[in-house]
Amino acid sequence: MTKFTDLGLNASVLRAVLEGGYEDMTPIQKQAIPVVLDGKDLIGVAQTGTGKTAAFSLPLIQKLLTGEGKRAPKGARALILAPTRELAIQIAENIQAYAKYLHLRTTLVYGGASPKPQIKAMAPGVDILIATPGRLLDLMNQKFINLSQVEYLVLDEADRMLDMGFIRDIQKIIAQLPKSRQTLLFSATMPTTVLKLANSILNNPHRIDVAPAATTAEKVDQHVLLVPKGRKRELLAHVLKDESLSRVLIFTRTKHGANKVAKQLDQLGISSGAIHGNKSQNARQKALNDFRTGETRTLVATDVAARGIDVDGVTHVINFEIPNEPESYVHRIGRTARAGAAGASLSFCDHDERGFLRDIEKTIRQQVPVLEDHPFHLEGIANAPASQDNDSGNNGRRGAPNRRAGSGRQKPNNRPSGQPKSQRSRPNSGGGQRNQRRQAVSA
Ligand code: AMP
For residue 212, what pLDDT is reported? Predict the structure, then answer.
């Protein structure tokens, strides 16, 4: 079964799906949809970009249509929990698109916005409630929401929810749901904390793993640019001179850093928006929409705020700062090269971040080639102790493509298939270059 037409979906749902341009199912959809339709609990190890939202929402809609449950005041028949407002909104938008020819009631409950309209929307009861845990629990505690009739529970991006400290809220919410329900849990990674949660809330689940981190990362043409910390802003200005970087998502580690980069882009006359936790929901949504429609060329984001960003055609992800968690790196670069498109990532790495980079390379089980062709490369090298350079496992001789940042995005990586990493070609790696590097290191 590879096509949506094979699933026996309700004709109105199928019509909306086909109108949305979907034809073939993605791997997670092929595996998950029949299991969910069959009424089984499910663990899906999958990231955003794999089509996981449709993988759970299409069978969920189908089951809501064919099931006998009814909406109850203040209640929901299906509850979808997501870690961030952005992801919750994204899921709601997808569900609204799939259910556009149906009369299902769907609503959103999340923090950072007035609770009044949310309470009002919940009063008559809904079919599908998409919520972030904190606000949901708050409204449950105030008796504005009653989830004693929930038939279906979905936890999306469970690993991130736990990272964000939502475990207690989630447990309290689930304690108020009926025991007999169907539960689906999706997570990009499966650390023991998530497995423990899964074991405590799922009943004999079917497990599906798609796109392990390394596979997703393989699709993105990744490079690292060595640069002193104090030169990153100039490097950013330099790489953005290349107009092939047309829709660029820039990541910083902190909200403050995101603001600073956005301000710098403004000064350079490069249209940008910023999303992070200190921005109001409206401001975040506007920045995201402007980026999505191409009104702005760049969007600066922190990891948490960027969860759930689903923008087609992101040409480049720039890691202005290297994340200290390898999983964040995988998530960040997974915002490009979506749905089979080409995508590239450029990671600005200063001396202090080399340890993070090594951890990332271990996680993705591949070396990220160094892009030497930029004005700050030798300064970046000079900044690092020689021993660090040798730590990379091949005497510091990483593959370095001889081209400008951003060009040649079509190639998934620079390594001909089957060629071991240690023998990777290094077009720009003549002896002269190496000597230059040694001089710089010992300078
Ligand atoms: P997700 O992983 O749910 O965030 O989905 C990633 C993107 O792929 C979204 O823009 C979806 O609309 C799109 N998508 C999901 N399933 C399919 C499909 N079977 N065919 C084409 N696009 C899809």
Answer: 54
